[in-house]
Amino acid sequence: MSGPTQRLRLLYIVGSGRSGSTLLSRLLGAHPDIVSVGELLNYRQFFESAEERERYCSCGSALLECSYWKRVRELTRHACGEEFPDLKSKVGANFEAANRAVIEAVHKASGGRIVLDTSKRYDRLRMLRATRAFDISVIHLIRDPRAYGYSSLLTELRKGQGPDVLYRKLSRWQNKNLWLRAEAVGGTRYQQVRYEDLVRYPQATLSSILDNLHLDRVDDLISAANTAEQHEFSGNSGVFSQRALKLDLDRRYLTQLTSRQWRTATLMTLPGLLTFRYPLTRDEPCAPEYVR
Ligand SMILES: [Zn+2]
Protein backbone atom coordinates (compact mmCIF):
# COMPACT_ATOMS: atom_id res chain seq x y z
CA MET A 1 0.00 0.00 0.00
CA SER A 2 2.95 2.34 0.32
CA GLY A 3 4.27 2.40 -3.25
CA PRO A 4 5.05 5.82 -4.68
CA THR A 5 1.86 5.90 -6.73
CA GLN A 6 -0.26 5.67 -3.60
CA ARG A 7 1.36 8.62 -1.86
CA LEU A 8 -0.92 11.59 -1.27
CA ARG A 9 0.00 14.76 -3.08
CA LEU A 10 0.81 17.60 -0.73
CA LEU A 11 1.56 21.20 -1.68
CA TYR A 12 3.70 23.02 0.86
CA ILE A 13 4.46 26.76 1.10
CA VAL A 14 7.82 27.53 2.70
CA GLY A 15 9.34 30.95 3.46
CA SER A 16 9.28 33.86 5.91
CA GLY A 17 6.08 35.20 7.44
CA ARG A 18 4.41 38.31 6.00
CA SER A 19 5.12 37.12 2.50
CA GLY A 20 1.57 36.75 1.25
CA SER A 21 1.01 33.05 1.96
CA THR A 22 -2.60 33.65 3.01
CA LEU A 23 -3.28 35.42 -0.28
CA LEU A 24 -1.58 32.69 -2.30
CA SER A 25 -3.39 29.92 -0.47
CA ARG A 26 -6.76 31.61 -0.94
CA LEU A 27 -6.08 31.93 -4.68
CA LEU A 28 -4.80 28.37 -5.11
CA GLY A 29 -7.57 27.00 -2.88
CA ALA A 30 -10.09 28.26 -5.44
CA HIS A 31 -8.69 25.75 -7.95
CA PRO A 32 -10.95 22.69 -8.26
CA ASP A 33 -8.04 20.30 -7.60
CA ILE A 34 -6.54 22.05 -4.54
CA VAL A 35 -7.86 22.41 -1.01
CA SER A 36 -6.13 24.90 1.24
CA VAL A 37 -6.53 24.52 4.96
CA GLY A 38 -4.02 26.93 6.52
CA GLU A 39 -0.96 26.31 8.66
CA LEU A 40 -1.39 22.64 9.41
CA LEU A 41 1.36 22.62 12.01
CA ASN A 42 -0.94 24.61 14.32
CA TYR A 43 -3.92 22.31 13.82
CA ARG A 44 -4.17 21.05 17.41
CA GLN A 45 -3.38 24.44 18.98
CA PHE A 46 -5.99 26.28 16.87
CA PHE A 47 -8.80 23.81 17.48
CA GLU A 48 -8.10 23.32 21.17
CA SER A 49 -8.18 27.06 21.80
CA ALA A 50 -10.99 27.76 19.32
CA GLU A 51 -13.71 28.40 21.90
CA GLU A 52 -11.59 30.47 24.24
CA ARG A 53 -10.13 32.58 21.40
CA GLU A 54 -13.41 32.71 19.43
CA ARG A 55 -11.82 31.37 16.29
CA TYR A 56 -13.61 31.23 12.96
CA CYS A 57 -13.17 29.15 9.86
CA SER A 58 -12.69 31.18 6.66
CA CYS A 59 -16.16 29.98 5.55
CA GLY A 60 -17.58 32.22 8.28
CA SER A 61 -18.67 29.51 10.76
CA ALA A 62 -17.36 29.34 14.29
CA LEU A 63 -14.41 26.95 13.92
CA LEU A 64 -15.89 24.20 16.10
CA GLU A 65 -19.24 24.46 14.30
CA CYS A 66 -17.94 24.24 10.72
CA SER A 67 -19.43 21.10 9.17
CA TYR A 68 -16.41 20.59 6.90
CA TRP A 69 -14.06 20.43 9.88
CA LYS A 70 -16.51 18.26 11.84
CA ARG A 71 -16.16 15.73 9.02
CA VAL A 72 -12.34 16.04 9.03
CA ARG A 73 -12.28 15.61 12.81
CA GLU A 74 -14.45 12.51 12.60
CA LEU A 75 -12.25 10.95 9.89
CA THR A 76 -9.14 11.85 11.87
CA ARG A 77 -10.47 10.25 15.04
CA HIS A 78 -11.35 7.16 13.08
CA ALA A 79 -7.79 6.97 11.70
CA CYS A 80 -5.73 7.67 14.80
CA GLY A 81 -8.01 7.68 17.83
CA GLU A 82 -8.11 11.43 18.46
CA GLU A 83 -9.62 14.47 16.79
CA PHE A 84 -6.70 16.81 17.36
CA PRO A 85 -3.42 14.88 17.14
CA ASP A 86 -0.21 16.85 17.59
CA LEU A 87 1.15 17.60 14.12
CA LYS A 88 4.31 19.06 15.70
CA SER A 89 5.40 15.88 17.45
CA LYS A 90 9.18 15.47 17.45
CA VAL A 91 8.89 11.68 17.58
CA GLY A 92 9.07 10.42 14.00
CA ALA A 93 6.46 7.65 14.32
CA ASN A 94 3.96 9.91 16.13
CA PHE A 95 4.58 12.73 13.66
CA GLU A 96 3.88 10.45 10.74
CA ALA A 97 0.73 8.89 12.24
CA ALA A 98 -0.72 12.27 13.22
CA ASN A 99 0.04 14.01 9.93
CA ARG A 100 -1.08 11.09 7.84
CA ALA A 101 -4.40 10.95 9.73
CA VAL A 102 -5.20 14.67 9.33
CA ILE A 103 -3.93 15.10 5.77
CA GLU A 104 -5.78 11.97 4.58
CA ALA A 105 -8.91 13.18 6.36
CA VAL A 106 -8.72 16.58 4.62
CA HIS A 107 -8.08 14.85 1.30
CA LYS A 108 -11.14 12.62 1.77
CA ALA A 109 -13.43 15.36 3.09
CA SER A 110 -12.57 17.55 0.09
CA GLY A 111 -13.32 14.88 -2.49
CA GLY A 112 -9.73 13.92 -3.24
CA ARG A 113 -8.11 17.30 -3.77
CA ILE A 114 -4.41 18.11 -3.29
CA VAL A 115 -3.88 19.42 0.24
CA LEU A 116 -2.16 22.80 0.52
CA ASP A 117 -0.28 23.38 3.79
CA THR A 118 0.94 26.96 4.41
CA SER A 119 3.03 26.15 7.51
CA LYS A 120 6.14 27.83 6.00
CA ARG A 121 8.63 26.13 8.37
CA TYR A 122 11.44 24.16 6.82
CA ASP A 123 11.87 21.79 9.77
CA ARG A 124 8.29 20.64 9.24
CA LEU A 125 8.89 20.14 5.51
CA ARG A 126 11.95 18.03 6.29
CA MET A 127 9.98 15.83 8.70
CA LEU A 128 7.12 15.47 6.19
CA ARG A 129 9.62 14.39 3.53
CA ALA A 130 11.25 11.91 5.90
CA THR A 131 7.95 10.07 6.38
CA ARG A 132 7.87 9.23 2.65
CA ALA A 133 4.09 9.18 3.10
CA PHE A 134 3.48 12.16 0.81
CA ASP A 135 4.32 13.27 -2.70
CA ILE A 136 5.35 16.85 -1.88
CA SER A 137 5.59 19.91 -4.15
CA VAL A 138 7.17 23.02 -2.61
CA ILE A 139 6.49 26.68 -3.28
CA HIS A 140 9.14 29.00 -1.81
CA LEU A 141 7.35 32.31 -1.37
CA ILE A 142 9.64 35.35 -1.19
CA ARG A 143 9.00 39.03 -0.55
CA ASP A 144 11.40 41.98 -0.73
CA PRO A 145 13.20 41.82 2.65
CA ARG A 146 12.81 45.57 3.17
CA ALA A 147 9.03 45.24 2.78
CA TYR A 148 9.03 42.23 5.10
CA GLY A 149 11.28 44.12 7.56
CA TYR A 150 9.15 47.24 7.51
CA SER A 151 5.95 45.27 8.06
CA SER A 152 7.57 43.34 10.95
CA LEU A 153 8.93 46.58 12.40
CA LEU A 154 5.47 48.16 12.61
CA THR A 155 4.17 45.16 14.54
CA GLU A 156 7.17 44.97 16.87
CA LEU A 157 7.09 48.71 17.63
CA ARG A 158 3.46 48.31 18.68
CA LYS A 159 4.60 45.55 21.05
CA GLY A 160 7.14 47.93 22.60
CA GLN A 161 10.32 46.69 20.87
CA GLY A 162 13.04 49.13 19.82
CA PRO A 163 13.74 50.01 16.15
CA ASP A 164 16.79 47.70 16.01
CA VAL A 165 14.40 44.77 15.77
CA LEU A 166 14.34 45.61 12.03
CA TYR A 167 17.92 44.36 11.65
CA ARG A 168 17.34 41.20 13.63
CA LYS A 169 14.37 40.41 11.36
CA LEU A 170 16.42 41.11 8.23
CA SER A 171 19.23 38.90 9.40
CA ARG A 172 16.76 36.08 9.97
CA TRP A 173 15.14 36.68 6.56
CA GLN A 174 18.49 36.46 4.83
CA ASN A 175 19.59 33.27 6.59
CA LYS A 176 16.31 31.52 6.09
CA ASN A 177 15.68 32.34 2.45
CA LEU A 178 19.22 31.79 1.18
CA TRP A 179 19.43 28.57 3.09
CA LEU A 180 16.07 27.41 1.70
CA ARG A 181 17.25 28.13 -1.81
CA ALA A 182 20.55 26.32 -1.27
CA GLU A 183 18.71 23.32 0.15
CA ALA A 184 16.28 23.30 -2.73
CA VAL A 185 18.67 23.68 -5.63
CA GLY A 186 18.72 20.46 -7.59
CA GLY A 187 15.48 19.34 -6.02
CA THR A 188 12.72 18.74 -8.52
CA ARG A 189 9.33 19.75 -7.18
CA TYR A 190 10.40 23.24 -6.05
CA GLN A 191 9.31 26.62 -7.34
CA GLN A 192 10.29 30.11 -6.24
CA VAL A 193 7.49 32.65 -6.29
CA ARG A 194 7.96 36.33 -5.53
CA TYR A 195 5.05 37.94 -3.71
CA GLU A 196 5.46 41.03 -5.88
CA ASP A 197 4.95 38.98 -9.06
CA LEU A 198 1.88 37.34 -7.56
CA VAL A 199 0.33 40.72 -6.79
CA ARG A 200 1.30 42.52 -9.98
CA TYR A 201 0.95 39.67 -12.46
CA PRO A 202 -1.41 37.25 -10.71
CA GLN A 203 -2.72 35.41 -13.74
CA ALA A 204 0.73 34.69 -15.16
CA THR A 205 2.19 33.75 -11.80
CA LEU A 206 -0.70 31.43 -10.92
CA SER A 207 -0.60 29.83 -14.37
CA SER A 208 3.09 29.14 -13.93
CA ILE A 209 2.44 27.48 -10.55
CA LEU A 210 -0.39 25.36 -11.98
CA ASP A 211 1.77 24.33 -14.95
CA ASN A 212 4.50 23.19 -12.58
CA LEU A 213 1.96 21.17 -10.62
CA HIS A 214 0.61 19.67 -13.87
CA LEU A 215 -2.83 21.03 -13.09
CA ASP A 216 -5.21 22.67 -15.54
CA ARG A 217 -5.06 26.44 -15.74
CA VAL A 218 -8.17 28.25 -14.54
CA ASP A 219 -9.15 31.36 -16.49
CA ASP A 220 -9.89 33.68 -13.60
CA LEU A 221 -8.74 32.27 -10.31
CA ILE A 222 -9.14 35.68 -8.66
CA SER A 223 -12.89 35.78 -9.33
CA ALA A 224 -13.10 32.12 -8.33
CA ALA A 225 -11.33 32.93 -5.04
CA ASN A 226 -13.93 35.60 -4.35
CA THR A 227 -16.81 33.16 -4.62
CA ALA A 228 -15.46 29.68 -3.76
CA GLU A 229 -16.26 28.48 -0.25
CA GLN A 230 -13.04 27.65 1.54
CA HIS A 231 -12.29 26.27 4.98
CA GLU A 232 -9.00 27.62 6.27
CA PHE A 233 -8.70 27.30 10.02
CA SER A 234 -5.75 29.70 10.30
CA GLY A 235 -4.36 32.61 8.38
CA ASN A 236 -4.45 36.33 8.07
CA SER A 237 -7.92 37.46 9.16
CA GLY A 238 -7.51 40.62 7.05
CA VAL A 239 -7.36 38.49 3.90
CA PHE A 240 -10.17 36.21 5.13
CA SER A 241 -12.53 39.07 5.69
CA GLN A 242 -12.01 40.74 2.31
CA ARG A 243 -15.11 40.16 0.24
CA ALA A 244 -13.21 40.96 -2.94
CA LEU A 245 -9.52 40.10 -2.84
CA LYS A 246 -7.30 43.15 -3.16
CA LEU A 247 -4.11 42.55 -5.06
CA ASP A 248 -2.35 45.78 -4.18
CA LEU A 249 1.36 46.02 -3.62
CA ASP A 250 1.95 47.67 -0.24
CA ARG A 251 4.53 50.29 -1.22
CA ARG A 252 4.97 51.98 2.16
CA TYR A 253 8.41 50.41 2.64
CA LEU A 254 9.65 52.36 -0.38
CA THR A 255 9.00 55.69 1.33
CA GLN A 256 8.74 55.07 5.07
CA LEU A 257 12.15 53.57 5.88
CA THR A 258 14.71 56.28 6.68
CA SER A 259 17.76 56.64 4.40
CA ARG A 260 19.91 54.98 7.02
CA GLN A 261 17.45 52.11 7.52
CA TRP A 262 17.19 51.59 3.75
CA ARG A 263 20.97 51.58 3.26
CA THR A 264 21.64 49.25 6.17
CA ALA A 265 18.77 46.92 5.21
CA THR A 266 20.00 46.80 1.61
CA LEU A 267 23.60 46.06 2.61
CA MET A 268 22.57 43.43 5.14
CA THR A 269 20.44 41.53 2.66
CA LEU A 270 22.55 42.14 -0.45
CA PRO A 271 23.15 38.44 -1.27
CA GLY A 272 19.41 37.78 -0.93
CA LEU A 273 18.43 40.84 -2.98
CA LEU A 274 20.76 39.76 -5.81
CA THR A 275 19.71 36.12 -5.61
CA PHE A 276 16.01 36.89 -5.81
CA ARG A 277 16.53 39.80 -8.24
CA TYR A 278 15.29 42.75 -6.23
CA PRO A 279 16.43 46.31 -7.03
CA LEU A 280 18.91 47.91 -4.64
CA THR A 281 17.43 51.39 -5.03
CA ARG A 282 13.98 52.53 -4.03
CA ASP A 283 12.40 51.32 -7.23
CA GLU A 284 9.50 49.02 -7.71
CA PRO A 285 10.45 45.36 -7.90
CA CYS A 286 11.85 44.57 -11.33
CA ALA A 287 10.33 42.69 -14.22
CA PRO A 288 8.40 39.57 -13.39
CA GLU A 289 10.16 36.25 -13.64
CA TYR A 290 7.17 34.16 -14.46
CA VAL A 291 5.31 36.00 -17.17
CA ARG A 292 4.88 33.79 -20.19
ZN1 LIG B 1 -15.52 26.13 7.34
List the keywords:
single chain, 292 residues, alpha/beta, 5-stranded parallel beta sheet, globular
Portion of residues in beta strands equals 5-15%
How far apart, in Å, are the first and last alpha carbons?
A: 40 Å
How many E-type strands? 5
In this entry the ligands are:
zinc ion
Counting DSSP H or I runs of 4 or more residues, the number of helices is: 14
Order of helices and strands: EHEHHHEHEHHEHHHHHHH
* Strands side by side in the biggest sheet: 2-3-1-4-5
Taking the sheet with the most strands, its summary is: 5 strands, parallel
Description of the molecule:
- By secondary structure, this protein is α/β, with parallel strands linked by helices.
- It has a domain at 4-144 and 190-250.
- 48% of the residues lie in helices and 12% in strands.
- The protein contains 14 helices and 5 strands.
- Residues 57, 59, 61, 66, 68-69, 231 line the site of zinc ion.
Task: Explain briefly what this protein structure is.
It contains 14 helices and five strands.
Map the helices and strands.
Layout: E1 8-15, H1 21-28, E2 34-38, H2 43-48, H3 67-80, H4 92-109, E3 114-120, H5 122-131, E4 134-142, H6 145-158, H7 165-184, E5 190-194, H8 195-200, H9 202-212, H10 221-227, H11 237-240, H12 252-256, H13 259-268, H14 270-275
Parallel strand pairs: 1-3, 1-4, 2-3, 4-5
Helix pairs in contact: 3-4, 6-7
